[in-house]
Amino acid sequence: TYSPFELCTILQEQSVLACSDGGATSEAGSFGWILSTQDGERIAWCNGAAPRTVSSSFRSEGYGTLSLLCFFTRIAEFCNIDLASIDLLVGTDSKSLITRINTERQRMTVHPNDTLVSDWDITNEIQLRLQAFAYNVHIEHVLGHQDLDTQYEDLSLMAQLNVDADKLASQYMLDHPRTTSRDPRLTNNLRQSALPQAVPHPT
Question: What's this model's pTM, rounded to 2 decimal places?
Answer without folding.
Answer: 0.86
